[in-house]
Each structure stands twice: as C-alpha cells, then as structure tokens.
Specification:
Elements (H helix, E strand, L loop, with lengths): L1 E2 L9 E5 L22 E5 L5 E7 L3 H8 L5 E5 L3 H5 L4 E6 L1 E2 L6
InterPro entries: SAV_915-like_dom
Protein name: SseB protein N-terminal domain-containing protein
C-alpha cells in the first residue's frame, strides 16, 4: 500500500476500517459502550523493522475504493483517534492509503 499526500489540515472526522461490524449511530459513530477492533497492518519502516499502523480514511468513498463495499467501518472524531488507539500497538496512522499499482 502507498499513501496519498497528507492534507494540509486534518479532517474533523475519520473513517476507520474495523475487523467486524460494530453497532453504530445513524452518523456511523460507534455506540458509546461498543468495543471496536480497528484494523491494524504491519508496515516496514526505514530500518526494515515492522511496526503496526492504523488505517484511516477522510471519506467513506475513499475507504470503499481502497477496501471494497463489504469492509465494515466506523466514524470517529479526529480528536478522539489517539485515545481510541491507546493500547492497540499502533505506532502511527496511515491516512487515505491506496493499493499499489497492480495490487488486488
């Protein structure tokens, strides 16, 4: 996967792929007491060591384009992302990733 250029200003909300369906409000946010298993992927750093990153998208259409219509997701306030990822092992967030050319 590669990442598109980072927007100069972070979006107010982020769309995050999840490992399974999550009870949601009509706006797509998880219901308050829901546990959400966000999708984390290993990525090789410059030193060759792998670390976990969380995938995030600025819009639902970008998530669907990259991951397909069947991919479950939730919407979180960007300001809540750090707390949502606490304890997950994610060391960074990859915003609007796209499949590399020729990948399926």
């Amino acid at each position: 996967m590669t990442s598109s250029s980072t927007p100069s200003r972070a979006p107010e909300h982020l769309v995050l792929p999840t490992m399974s369906e999550v009870p949601q409000t009509p706006e797509g946010s998880p219901v308050d007491d829901s546990t959400v298993d966000l999708m984390l992927v290993p990525v090789a750093g410059n030193s060759g060591e792998e670390h976990l990153v969380a995938l995030a998208f600025s819009t639902v259409p970008l998530l669907v384009e990259a991951m397909g219509e069947q991919q479950p997701w939730v919407v979180l306030l960007t300001s809540d992302l750090e707390e949502a990822l606490r304890g997950s092992g994610a060391q960074s967030v990859l915003l609007d990733p796209r499949l590399a050319a020729g990948a399926e």
